[in-house]
Write a structure and sequence with these properties.
Blueprint (H helix, E strand, L loop, with lengths): L4 H11 L4 H8 L3 H15 L4 H12 L2
GO molecular function, one term: DNA binding
Protein name: Regulatory LuxR family protein
Keywords: DNA-binding, Transcription, Transcription regulation
């Protein structure tokens, strides 16, 4: 599944190790919205943890 531009932004910042609250502040959105984006990412990538998302991010974008 394709990611939205916002999901890509959230994933990139998540890969920097930032918390939901810091991601929210950086993107000027609610931390609840960040949580929703991360849930969507987990579902789309068929993984169950933030660490797995970050591993996929580095695997896909830094080959």
């Amino acid at each position: 599944m394709n990611l939205t531009s916002r999901e890509k932004e959230v994933l990139q910042i998540l890969a920097e190790g930032k918390s939901n609250k810091k991601i929210a502040a950086e993107l000027n959105i609610s931390h609840f919205t960040v949580r929703d984006h991360i849930s969507s990412l987990l579902r789309k990538k068929r993984v169950s943890s933030r660490q797995q998302l970050v591993s996929i991010y580095y695997g896909e974008y830094f080959k």
